């Protein structure tokens, strides 16, 4: 059985929040001290599969907003009142969690607390900087498949934070570096192509 402190346990708890609709404020409250980590995972998950615009762009912008707060060493994320008041259907939330659980549970079998200093409060600004770069990469990623390495990297960093596994955080940073290189190559090719018309 997964501990409620593990990623899968936290997601299952989210899926069982009461009511036909779940407000964003209730989701953040349920995450408690893991709010940053789970927000990062939730923003990375949609980008692990081919997704049409503007999903990577939206996830990248929200992730940049969250990462900037980590960079400023805020202990809990601040979200605008309008966003906190928004809600999603409980059935949609439960369906999304159900899809995410199998790969997360498989990953949890290999994850354990190690190199825990990378997930501590002193490392928060550094991780914020890493996630900010990944967010910028998502914003300019090639459509449909360019965001996949970056989405995977974001998920690994988020899971490392939840599981207190510094090795997962390092793996996420390495995958992210590769994803950023691909995004930079795409951006350079796009700019060069546009410049050829002038």
From TrEMBL:
<dbReference type="InterPro" id="IPR010331">
    <property type="entry name" value="ExoD"/>
</dbReference>
<keyword id="KW-1133">Transmembrane helix</keyword>
<dbReference type="Pfam" id="PF06055">
    <property type="entry name" value="ExoD"/>
</dbReference>
<feature type="transmembrane region" description="Helical">
    <location>
        <begin position="115"/>
        <end position="138"/>
    </location>
</feature>
<keyword id="KW-0812">Transmembrane</keyword>
<feature type="transmembrane region" description="Helical">
    <location>
        <begin position="55"/>
        <end position="73"/>
    </location>
</feature>
<keyword id="KW-0472">Membrane</keyword>
<feature type="transmembrane region" description="Helical">
    <location>
        <begin position="144"/>
        <end position="162"/>
    </location>
</feature>
<protein>
    <submittedName>
        <fullName>Exopolysaccharide biosynthesis protein</fullName>
    </submittedName>
</protein>
<feature type="transmembrane region" description="Helical">
    <location>
        <begin position="169"/>
        <end position="195"/>
    </location>
</feature>
């Amino acid at each position: 059985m997964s501990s409620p402190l593990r990623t899968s346990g936290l997601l299952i708890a989210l899926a069982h929040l009461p009511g036909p609709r779940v407000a964003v404020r209730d989701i953040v409250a349920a995450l408690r001290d893991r709010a940053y980590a789970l927000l990062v995972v939730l923003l990375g998950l949609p980008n692990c599969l081919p997704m049409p615009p503007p999903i990577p762009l939206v996830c990248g912008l929200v992730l940049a907003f969250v990462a900037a707060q980590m960079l400023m060493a805020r202990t809990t994320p601040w979200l605008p009142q309008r966003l906190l008041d928004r809600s999603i259907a409980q059935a949609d939330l439960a369906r999304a969690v159900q899809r995410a659980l199998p790969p997360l549970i498989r990953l949890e079998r290999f994850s354990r607390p190690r190199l825990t200093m990378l997930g501590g409060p002193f490392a928060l600004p550094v991780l914020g900087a890493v996630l900010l770069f990944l967010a910028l990469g998502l914003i300019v990623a090639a459509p449909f498949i360019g965001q996949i390495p970056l989405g995977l990297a974001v998920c690994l960093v988020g899971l490392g934070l939840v599981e207190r596994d510094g090795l997962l955080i390092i793996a996420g940073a390495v995958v992210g570096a590769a994803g950023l290189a691909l995004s930079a190559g795409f951006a350079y090719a796009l700019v060069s192509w546009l410049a050829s018309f002038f």
